[in-house]
Amino acid sequence: KLSTLGEMAAVLAHEIRNPLGSIRGTAEILRDDYPPGNPKHEFIEIQIKETERLNHVVEDFLRMARQQPGELRECSLRDELETIITLLNGDARQRGISLLLEEISGKALISADGEKLRQAFLNIILNALQATPAGGSVTITVSSSAAGYEISFVDSGSGIDAAALGKIFDPFFTTKVDGTGLGLAVTRKIVEAHGGQLTVTSEVGKGSTVTVVLPFG
Predict the structure, then answer these.
(1) pTM assigned to the model
(2) How far apart are the C-alpha atoms of 162 and 15, rounded to whole Å?
(3) Is the pLDDT of residue 94 over 90?
């Protein structure tokens, strides 16, 4: 059933992306006919942004349907997290947020699909950055427990109220104006497909902690 769902999602993505690409291409050509400040230029900009948003929805849906990891290889949690921190440091600085990866003892090796794991970690950290105001912090730690490696992502953001916290993994539920509501659903499926667990705790006004537990390699 999962393979059938994945195939259907791939067909759906293909059928939607093609016309979306045509719509965006046509809109970009029309936009050039009107100078910035012209109302028609602004309307076309909105159209282009909406096609981008729909494309993101399709991509997230495709990731959620293809929840099984690809080929598993020996993977270093330290290396994967350091790569993502390097990638997002510029964004964090622009937001005025301290993004810190605490020192990890050893390479913290696991068996994983590195690409999908990076996508999961990227989703979590981006959510944390978006929820944290300037002057705040996002801190990542890795420790060991009986269940495996525990990766904690702690932000000093606004927190999530109890009502929303119970729905954050529901597909299409979002508190963001431009969110798809699929990011955390996709992230949890990636983690679970690796034999892991993902939990979120939060307190309004104090921030949130996302904890990922992955089995030892």
Answers:
(1) 0.71
(2) 38
(3) yes
